[in-house]
Amino acid sequence: MTTIVTPRPELLDTAAGKDDYLTYTRGFLSWALTLDHKRIGVMYMTAVLASFLVGGTFALLLRTELLTPGRTICSAETYNQFFTLHGAIMVFLVIIPSIPAALGNFVLPIMLGAKDVAFPKLNLFSFYLWIGGALFTLYSLAAGGFDTGWTFYTPYSTTTTTGGVIPVLMGVFILGFSSIFTGLNFIVTVHKLRPPGMTWFRMPLFLWALYATAIIQVLATPVLAITLCLLIVERTMNIGIFNPSMGGDPVLYQHFFWFYSHPAVYIMIVPAMGIISEIISVHSHRQIFGYRFIAFSSIAIAMFSFIVWGHHMFVSGQSGLMNTIFSLISFSVAIPSAVKTFNWTMTLYKGTISLTAPMMYGLAFLFLFTIGGLTGIHLATLNTDVHLHDTYFVVAHFHYVMMGSALIGMIGGLHHWWPKMTGRMYNEKMAITACIIIFVGFNVTFFTQFMLGSQGMPRRYYDYQPEFQVYHVISTIGAYIMACGFFTCAVCFAQSLMSGKQAPANPWGGRSLEWQCTSPPPHDNFKSPPTVGNCYDFSMLRWDEKEQGYVVDKELEALAIAAEARGHS
Amino acid sequence: MSQASVDHEGHAAHAGHDGDGHGHGSAEHAKYPFLAHHFETPAQQFDSAKLGMWLFLATEVLFFGALFVAYAVLRSRFPEVFSYGSHYLNTVMGGINTCVLILSSLTMALGVYFAQRGKRVALLICLWLTMAGAAGFLVIKYFEYSHKIHENLVWGPGFYIPPDNAIGEVEAADLAHAPAPAPVAVPAPLNSALSGVPMVGTHPAVDASVVKAASVGPGGLGAGAVDHASAVTHDIIPHDVPSDHLEDPKMPPNTHLFFAIYYAMTGLHGFHVVVGMVVIGMLIYRATRGDFGPNYYTPVDLVGLYWHIVDLVWIFLFPLFYLIH
Lengths: 569, 325
What we know:
The structure holds 2 protein chains of 2 kinds.
Chain A: H1 9-12, H2 28-32, H3 37-65, H4 76-112, H5 120-142, H6 156-159, H7 165-192, H8 205-237, H9 250-283, H10 291-305, H11 320-332, H12 334-348, H13 357-380, H14 382-388, H15 392-422, H16 428-454, H17 469-499, E1 541-544, E2 549-552, H18 554-568
Chain B: H1 2-18, H2 26-31, H3 42-77, H4 79-85, H5 91-116, H6 120-150, H7 172-177, H8 187-194, H9 204-216, H10 229-236, H11 244-247, H12 255-289, H13 298-322
């Protein structure tokens, strides 16, 4: 405990910037066949953002179609394909891989103080699995598309005549293995590659979150894989396991599907919570409040995630007893979620808050996640769920959680680690403007949908009663506002890449290990094993005008060590 | 993968240039060429690989787990279907296969033992024996499958097409003349035949009659199918037996579901055996090259773990399908 902090030579040769992972080797193949987790993370990020553009385009198309009752721009069949594609792309290609595979790949080994993930080849392989899965999904469009909804419920998915069902099932199957291998890699990395001094309770909370996520990925995804296999076999060979006319059970499919897909919701949200723990603490320059509670609440959410799937099936003919049990357990997820939210709020309290772009996203997350989480209570309640089931209320709820929380968390994380990933700063004002536009657009879009849903507008419908039109129009306008926000965000990043000023090693004043190596980090991450301290103790950092970033102050550091020594005696 | 080595070489050169190498692990890296750059010691690399494999096995358990759940759900819903359908499975062949797999697990475990002690020849013998066990399992499985497929003991609507008695000469015309796949229509009269009769398995008399009916058909295969493989296809299958499962009034409705889950589970298991053969083949290649020794036997150990779980799955499948009547 006494040898916590020593001056780091890495900080000194920042300006030289000779060895950075971006320019370490050159050429297309040096990227395509790289085993460097940072490059794989960057490739994932590029691919995920490209998919986000596609999924977002489908969202805009379907919102445009809903501007008027009846036909606006496309037929009902096309509309069915739009919302299916929007859902499938956003879930399987964007949100699930976004934080663990893209940001996690980049950040996890550096934060941990390791040179790479445990299995670099497997890591690259899982990236190409992702590419393969994405190609299958694209091919399904050429093969006639699919209109099953992203949930592929039987018996419709086994009987629909759209030709793209089997390709997309293959695609999701492959994406599942990509996710499994990433999770497996992360678990082993966290267990086996921690350097001396990096104890479990010195790990940044983002690592706890990624670890909890990885457990879910490894344990839940295989069930989805086998379910999709059965669905493919059902569709091609008619084996009848999910077919009621042959003695099979379509609800069995729903059980299997949600046994994966409910935990998958936590694959999306838990790592975002980890990012928020980092952002809130670093940007309010205050020790995270309730470190162990936040760490264990991630694990608790991972555990709970496996035993709440039945709340998707309250009206599918489950027994009353099952419904009650699933309802009760679903309520208890509120406990670890609230533990996190209160701890974040307490961290902000009396913190020195810098309203940077990442912090703006962090605050947006707090606001949106609270709404998303609390409306979950409505849906976990049995009698209100009967009214709200399959209405826009559900759509609004899960968009507040999946998009307002998970995706906003991801984008906040991207802003947080952007200087580290690219070595460039971005235009802070423009980034903040983008965040505000997205935040406003998001609430206009989805808060309206709570009202639509509670008044009985069913989800996935092409046509609707004229009295709903005003809400639909507002919601669509919100979607366009959001699109403007994301466009601004993209311009901001593009500008940063082209003409952003050089990023310092530590632009925000973080203390976890990634801020100790240069921006962008060297090929090996660390030239010698890093020294590990309390990653949330910011007292020894001071702003350096010359460096344009935070540096460790010798005097403050001595004070901090003395304070820690006192604390331990 | 060539780029991988380039990456490593570039990395090594770079580290040398820097002067401080890989921190305190550099001596270890010089000593053990198999040690990847991001590990400090061989022990750390071995432990990581092993933990990774155990996690992969956990995913395998869940992968099969869903099918076991499907089995449980279907069996609890249609217990009579399972106890009836089980008669059509050849317990002797299944039993032999169980023994073959358990023996191959033993040879695999011995292989790990010899790899750890650097006994290359003994390791190779064990690996070849394991490979032979896997191949033997698949051959026996092939005969089981092909016989059932000839009898139309299959999944889905095909189950209700009368089997073609001219074995090996399935004619398209015959299939065309066969009744259209009518899974709902066919069981209906059978259902009425069964009404008034207690559920199979709960009534000893009915149980006995089912055993008798089945023993005339494919269920009776077991008697002489042990000797050698060719006997199975030509001598044992009774050509004069009519398409019994459709003519058997005791057949419960939805019997096709038994075969659906049977083929799904044993098929997935068979696929894992094939994958096992591929990875054992890679081990044989590397062991012949002399890659393994007391310092480095990780791949043998990992494939061993994989092979044991493949066996373990079969040890559950065998009683759940073959031994439930």
